C-alpha cells in the first residue's frame, strides 16, 4: 500500500506527467477519474481538494497535493528510487528550466490548441447551458476567455497562432538540446522528460506528426520513440487512452491541418 490517490484525467497533459513519474517509480495509486468535458473539475467536493478547478490532485497519506510539477518534485523527494533528477546542481537547474518553461508557456498553449481542435466538436454539441456553466466556472478570466474563443472559433481564434508558435519553439529547442540518445534531465530519463512528453504527444494526437518526423526533427523523433519504449509509458499513458477519443482527435486534427501547417513555419 502506497497511500496514494490520484484525481486525474486520461488525456490531461498534467495528469500524464504525474502518472509517468508514478509509473517510473513503480508506485500504485487509487484512481479517481475526473470528467473534464462534463465539468467534474468544478464539482464542489473536488474544488475543496483543488481550488483551481483543475487536475491532477494527489493525496498521499491524507495530505492533499496540487500542481503537477510540484507533485512530481514531491514524489521525487518522498520516493527517491529510482532517481528522476540529476545529482549535479547545474544539471538540476537545467532540468528545472524545462519544467518551468513547459508549465508557464507551453501548458497554456496546450489548452488553446487542444480545445481548438480535439474536443471542440464534442463541446459544441453540448447543450448551451451546460457549456456556458462550465465556461463560467473557470476561475481565471484570461483562461476562461481563451477557452471561449477556441470553442467558438477553433484554429481561427486569436490565441491559436501564438500557441502553435510556442510548441514549435519548444520542439526546436528540444532538437538543439538533445544529444543522440540523450534526455532533457541529464544522463537519464527524468522530470523534464516526463514534463515534455505529454505536450509532444498532444501534437501527435492532433495529427501534427509532420512536426515530429525523423526528417523534420531527428533528435525529437528519436527521444519520443525512446520515451514510448519505456515500460512506464504503457502503464502511465497508453493504457489510459481510449481509442474512440484518439480517433476523434486525429480526425479533427486532420481536418484543420491545412490551416495549421502554415502557422508552424514561423
Ligand atoms: N498548473 C496546473 C495546471 C493544471 C491544468 O491546467 N489541468 C488541466 C488538464 S491538463 C485541467 O484540469 N483543465 C480543466 C479545465 O481547464 O477546465 C498543474 O500543473 O497542475
Characterize the structure shown.
The model has no long low-confidence stretch (mean pLDDT 96). This protein folds into two domains: 75 residues, Glutaredoxin (3-Layer(aba) Sandwich), CATH 3.40.30.10; 177 residues, Glutathione S-transferase Yfyf (Class Pi), Chain A, domain 2. The radius of gyration is 18 Å and the shape is globular. By secondary structure, it is an alpha+beta fold. The protein is built from twelve helices and four strands. The relative contact order is 0.14. The chain has a four-stranded mixed beta sheet with strand order 2-1-3-4, with helices on one face. The protein binds glutathione.
Q: Rg, please? A: 18 Å
| Count of DSSP H/I helices | 12
- What pattern of helices and strands is seen along the backbone? EHEHEEHHHHHHHHHH
* Total number of beta strands: 4
What percentage of amino acids are in beta strands? 5-15%
Fraction of residues in H or I helices: 55-70%
Q: Find the structural class using helix and strand composition.
A: alpha+beta
Distinct ligands: glutathione
CATH architectural name of the largest domain: Up-down Bundle
Unreliable residue runs: none
> How are the strands of the largest sheet arranged?
2-1-3-4
| Ends distance | 49 Å
What is the mean pLDDT?
96
CATH topology name of the largest domain: Glutathione S-transferase Yfyf (Class Pi), Chain A, domain 2
Q: How many strands, what sense, and barrel or not for the largest sheet?
A: 4 strands, mixed
Shape: globular
Taken together, the total number of domains comes to 2
Q: For the record, what CATH class of the largest domain applies?
A: Mainly Alpha
Amino acid at each position: 500500500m502506497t497511500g496514494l490517490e490520484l484525481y486525474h484525467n486520461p488525456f490531461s497533459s498534467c495528469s500524464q506527467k504525474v502518472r509517468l513519474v508514478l509509473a517510473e517509480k513503480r508506485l500504485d495509486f487509487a484512481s479517481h477519474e475526473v470528467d473534464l468535458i462534463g465539468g467534474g473539475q468544478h464539482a464542489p467536493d473536488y474544488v475543496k481538494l483543488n481550488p483551481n478547478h483543475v487536475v491532477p490532485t494527489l493525496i498521499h497519506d491524507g495530505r492533499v497535493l496540487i500542481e503537477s510539477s510540484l507533485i512530481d518534485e514531491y514524489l521525487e523527494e518522498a520516493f527517491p528510487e529510482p532517481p528522476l533528477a540529476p545529482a549535479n546542481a547545474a544539471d538540476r537547474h537545467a532540468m528545472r528550466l524545462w519544467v518551468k518553461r513547459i508549465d508557464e508557456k507551453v501548458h497554456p498553449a496546450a489548452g488553446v490548441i487542444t480545445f481548438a481542435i480535439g474536443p471542440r466538436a464534442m463541446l459544441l454539441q453540448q447543450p448551451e447551458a451546460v457549456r456556458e456553466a462550465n465556461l463560467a466556472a473557470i476561475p481565471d478570466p484570461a483562461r476562461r476567455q481563451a477557452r471561449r474563443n477556441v470553442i467558438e472559433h477553433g484554429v481561427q481564434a486569436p490565441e491559436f497562432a501564438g500557441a502553435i508558435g510556442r510548441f514549435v519553439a519548444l520542439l526546436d529547442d528540444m532538437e538543439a538540446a538533445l544529444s543522440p540518445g540523450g534526455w532533457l534531465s541529464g544522463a537519464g530519463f527524468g522530470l523534464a522528460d516526463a514534463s515534455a512528453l505529454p505536450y509532444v504527444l498532444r501534437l501527435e494526437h492532433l495529427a501534427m506528426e509532420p512536426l515530429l518526423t525523423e526528417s523534420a526533427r531527428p533528435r525529437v523523433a528519436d527521444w519520443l520513440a525512446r520515451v514510448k519504449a519505456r515500460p512506464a509509458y504503457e502503464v502511465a499513458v497508453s493504457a489510459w487512452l481510449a481509442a474512440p477519443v484518439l480517433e476523434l482527435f486525429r480526425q479533427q486534427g486532420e481536418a484543420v491541418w491545412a490551416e495549421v501547417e502554415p502557422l508552424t513555419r514561423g
